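Summary for the steering committee. One of the milestones for this cycle was to obtain a three-dimensional model of the protein with iron/sulfur cluster bound, which we needed before selecting residues for the alanine scan. The sequence and ligand used are listed below.
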Amino acid sequence: MNTTYQPLEFICNPVVFLEGSPFNAASDFSQLNHHLEQRSLDDVLAWSLFTFGDRAAQVTSFGPTGMVILERLARLSPGIRVITLDTQFLFDETYALIEEVQRRYPITLDIRRPVLSPAAQAAAYGPRLWDTNPDACCRLRKVEPLNLAMENLDAWFTGLRRDQSPTRANMPIIGWDTRRGMVKINPLAHWTRSRVWKYIVDNNVPYNRLHNLGYASIGCTHCTRPTTNPTDERSGRWQNRAKTECGIHL
Ligand code: SF4
């Protein structure tokens, strides 16, 4: 058997017509990933949409990789659900991009916010929880709202790439999200940052204007600075702290 190329029909296993996800914590994704690594982005997305249908959604903060995935998903599956987290601490440039995305793409945008307003959080936990306990702040404003939004999903699309940081260097295209008990799809895990930006420029995909000011990775205003280390795209996040992830991908 030729192990370096398989037609998409091989990848789109008929088991997908069963009710519910055909995968579980014991699933071995190695052969599937071997095939998908050699496929186009559209093929990876087509397999995912074929397999999970509306039980899959994209989760994005509209970073460059997420924008490329969103642009292709909107073409392949108009109306697809896209979940984003409004921590209420986002940059004006991020809110502007969200508005542009809503104008431009035929997606169903599901914006989730924390239970606690910034004022209620300050009253309950102190005025600068992002300084005193950033893990708790991320849990309240990101992880818990996202987990609520993801109930009833069997799979989610992320914008993770292997070259974003050392902690993401071994990211598979398809993996198992142990914490949530569902499949995690990283369609551009194997793309480089420059390849993502080439796609954005070539296809006139909108992006966060803070990227023009040295911000390689953009989150909340309190915890995001221009990137200082060109080999670590996320070095502007939680600067001078051991924290490298908000908890969504742990
Ligand atoms: S990134 Fe910072 S401000 Fe945003 S939720 Fe996490 S700790 Fe809070």
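Key point for the committee: The CA atoms of residues 102 and 109 lie 7 Å apart.
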